[in-house]
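Q: How would the structure tokens look for this protein?
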Amino acid sequence: MQEEVNMNTGGISGQEPINPNVVRFKEFMKKFLRNKSALIGAIMILILFMIAIIGPMLTDVSPNAQDLTNRLATPNADNWFGTDHLGRDIFTRIVHGMSITLRVGFFSVLIGMSVGVTLGVISGYYGKWVDTIIMRFMDILLAFPGILLALAVVSVLGGSLNNVIISVAVFSIPVFARISRGSTLEVRQLEYIEAVKALGASDLRIISLHVLPNILSPIIVQATLNIATSVLTASGLSFLGMGAQPPTPEWGAMLSDGRNYMWDAPHVATIPGLAIVVVVLAFNIFGDGLRDALDPKTKN
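A: Here is the predicted structure in token form.
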């Protein structure tokens, strides 16, 4: 008796249909789990999130509580990371500052990615004068160094945490726009895109169902790496006094306060600086691992 062939799955009738998304996900996880540095980065990020969520609940001291009789104390059993020039517990401020740092990094990248990918896909898909206008505007933004552009934006808007997020998001836009435009130009030339067009599908449907899913890989990698850049930029703005305002326990502002006591109490500046390094390192390692796992040219 001849076996019936299931035309939808390309397999034999009675077998489970093979989902290509599941296959791709399994291949991704296989590559990712074999990348030791990527695993280390993922574990570090998980720990950072746990500290940001659970940490403030475990500390019974306010991050802004002052004790002038215990100022500039070195790390000890009562104050694990010591105290600053106002007698505030640095460990408590580091823990509370973790959520601020991650929030700035994620929301700034999310905003910049949303705007940049939208502009890049429109530019690459429609081309012609639309492409010219959008990309020349992106070139103007890219002409400024990232920190300088963010500093200009936050100078106009004023120093605050929300304005820092907006300013960091602005300099992220052209990076995502260029990546998504280049990927869209490649996907647009594929035969099945032409076939979908011939069937009468709208541009919005083609972009949302066929273009975006095929350009997500480089965007995800860039977003991960951009979080590290955003954290550095936001900390730099706060260091200059243009970001989070006192007494907010933001690491860049803490680093700025501690620079005046580098000789007498170096821990006041070095500990917030090391916290920034750890976060940036975690996302960079994780981003590199994602790049290797999502690259189809990488061997299993």
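The first strand starts at residue 5 and ends at 6.

The chain is about 70% helix and 0% strand.

Upvote if useful.
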